[in-house]
Amino acid sequence: MTGQGQAMLRLKNLVKTYKTGDQALKAVNLEVPDGQVLALIGPSGAGKSTMIRCINRLVEPTGGEVWLDDLEVSKLGAGALRRARRQMGMIFQEYALVERLSVMENVLSGRLGYVGFWRSLTRRYPQADVDEAFRLLDRVGLLHMADKRADELSGGQRQRVGICRALIQNPKLLLVDEPTASLDPKTSRQIMRLICELCAERGLAAIINIHDVALAQMFVNRVVGLRFGEIVFDGPPGGLTPDKLTEIYGEEDWEATIQKVEDEDMEAAQ
Predict the structure, then answer these.
(1) 229 burial type by CB count under 10 A (0-12 exposed, 13-18 middle, 19+ buried)
(2) Which residues constitute the signal peptide according to the record (predicted)?
(3) CATH code assigned at 14
């Protein structure tokens, strides 16, 4: 399924088998067009995090191909892979900030793939990078906290810093791994809305691995459902009927989940 122009990310028969023999991904095929934000849903162990990490090769695929535009990421050597990863911003569930560094320093660490080793070691970043970091922090409402240490921030604030760190790479693609798992419901909605707004502003494609079905339905136009390492759903949120959700997750009262989405949509509109 495509929608907004040419596919910028393509997965062809992507396979990941762990040494235990567990097959996390079974010949997954997926295309993501420029500018499209999709939610990746499925039960624990379905292969969602593995899929995201195979794209930027934090996890090495066992087989298949990963293409970013005309670049076959799955075949790159170490140096070329480092350069390719500049184009793939990653946002983590547990934020992955350096606690003792300031908010500004954590954001600027997203430029490490661009500046030389000695410059990064002494944290002497070009002025253009510093200016962009200030702009990003202002956009996410954290400009006043630029000098605070990361360990002084709330969960929602930390995730905003993680978003800025990913965006300062100037990526083509955002890979987002359970960005709301550690957050309360209100902050979760704020973070999802922020990610989707920033993607729209920048024409960025994104894959968001998310455990909250209602949240996925609220904010994205395309949902991909994984079960046992295979895609079992790929379509608009409205296609997630109780029967389809049961196929993805197993038995539950899915009518209640769908009602929750409708209630929260009405609440947000008021």
Answers:
(1) buried
(2) none
(3) 3.40.50.300
